[in-house]
């Protein structure tokens, strides 16, 4: 008996080995015949949990053995390789290449022409919705759907992203920026003149959450130092109060924070029935947060429904009302016998699913841009000075309460403020790569006047933003002033966006945008550098591009303008010199101290990890916001 078990087992092993060798040889032969540069990998996994296993265990394990450091394949196995190596791993590879293994054939693009064709041929290059199931916890939504299902949902969510909504984001951005300053000033040891902040990431996360709650959901939120009475008749128990609704453990904000964090990855590891019965606290809290969040979403949706019934629909500028309207209209049409498949609305589950995805997609992304902008500006004092001069020029002495969306937003967007926004996103794109899947047969795309073949048969495609954004082919550059690199594409140089467009720049937005969204007033007659189509993919392009792009841009411009009109951010150098010691230092000594803080801050930024977005984990970079004119390192900005 044992002999037969052994025979069966060894036959299986031999079959598997031979099968894998044959498959690998076939994939290599295909890559060669299609003229694709390629890298051979022993295996190549897709999916949050499997990628995390490779990224967290296998790659660090291999790094323990110095002889593996010269191996090429572990670099390409790293699911975060573009963030880890930026562009050094590409070496002699072209700006598109394949990774082949016995079980997979993936295609990676860092080429603008390829990107544009892929995002615009939506039916051939689809969204790999199977890897997004983790964000289906409140129901299917636009991000996790494809085909007619996606088209229907996108048609319903798009009308919310209007100029009216952008203007609301502007107003809230200015207000919330001021509240964040007030919160910083209220902390022990701080004053409105000088604020020491250990980790600005926590506060930009709160700020972004408040803006999406306010402009996206119509629920104003208060900061810890503010009194709930300022909410007036907008106070809603649990939704924006400091105590949860009766019978619930968490407030809406607490439940949102918990159920939009990395911990939702548990849902992709274990089935829900297991998490519900799990004895671990983390699982119990996750389920409680999910259930409380769902309760608040439903309450919010009911509120929007009542609002419509009372006839206040015209006043709604939020992103949820259009979802409720579409579903109510479809119900009514069906009841009256006029319903066709075209005016189908959303199911209740799709409404909660889309409500969640708007929150999820629009929260951490924007918060990270603000956080990294603060850090890069603290590291680059000369650029910060330039930014402040531009803000002064655009708004003069007028108080922020008089800044208008129609005029000031456009002027500030087309200045160094827009430069800082774009440069931060260029260096750290919140969505580091955009996955697609090539369904059906192989496909042809054109590159530099020739045709290349992209594998079909459900091959994965990645449009790699981190490396693309550092391409000499698409971005203006000069020799680096901070390293010995012959270009400054790894450095923060927001001024590069102020350069005049070359003839290869993308066209200015027209009235008919391919993403089907209203053109924002600040985009028209823009004067910033515009990369060629397919070269700036931070928000993706084409029909599936980010509907929240203008929302995020308005938010970042409002907050940066408000803060840097009044304050300067400097690195907190206290780990290297006390305030008393600084006062006695020569300019050169101060420069040396600041140099140490800059080096450390850059190391910590580079140490950021890719989770859902690129985010700093571990030690934060402490900074100080000081009133303009009270800088400790003002001389270094010259
Ligand atoms: C800096 C901030 C942001 C960045 C960089 C960003 C980036 C992106 C990208 C790259 C996609 C396409 C993902 C893919 O195809 O795999 C996307 C989709 C999406 N984003 Fe954003 N986003 C940002 C902010 C926002 C905001 C503020 C909202 C909402 C208020 C939002 C809502 C969405 C939604 C609903 C989708 C799914 C669209 C669809 O599949 O049709 N995003 N975003």
TrEMBL record:
Key words of the record: Heme, Iron, Membrane, Metal-binding, Monooxygenase, Oxidoreductase, Transmembrane, Transmembrane helix
Cofactor: heme
UniProt-listed PROSITE patterns: CYTOCHROME_P450 (PS00086)
Superkingdom: Eukaryota
GO molecular-function term, one example from the UniProt record: iron ion binding
Pfam families listed in its UniProt record: p450 (PF00067)
Residues annotated as binding heme: 546
InterPro entries documented for this protein: Cyt_P450, Cyt_P450_CS, Cyt_P450_E_grp-I, Cyt_P450_sf, Cytochrome_P450_monoxygenase
TM region(s), chain numbering: 47-65
Family: Belongs to the cytochrome P450 family.
Protein name: Cytochrome P450 monooxygenase-like protein
